[in-house]
Amino acid sequence: xxxYEYRCRSCDAEFELLIRGQETPICPTxxxxxxxxxxxxxxxxxxxxxxxxVCEPAPSAGCGLPQCGAGxxxxx
Length: 76
Description:
Distance between the termini: 43 Å
Order of helices and strands: EEE
Strand content: 15-25%
Radius of gyration: 21 Å
């Protein structure tokens, strides 16, 4: 299920909601349905260190080829 970001046109509250099917989003602050959907920025891996938590790459087995880790490495 997608998670969408919204801004309420009535009270200016910004919030995220999990919307299923044809559900109508409602502002959790003022309970109106006069909201606009905002584009969400997807989370992405960054090589630089910041105060935000960043997922580390999974440890690789062998040389990193897709064949490695599924048995023997072709370079062994």
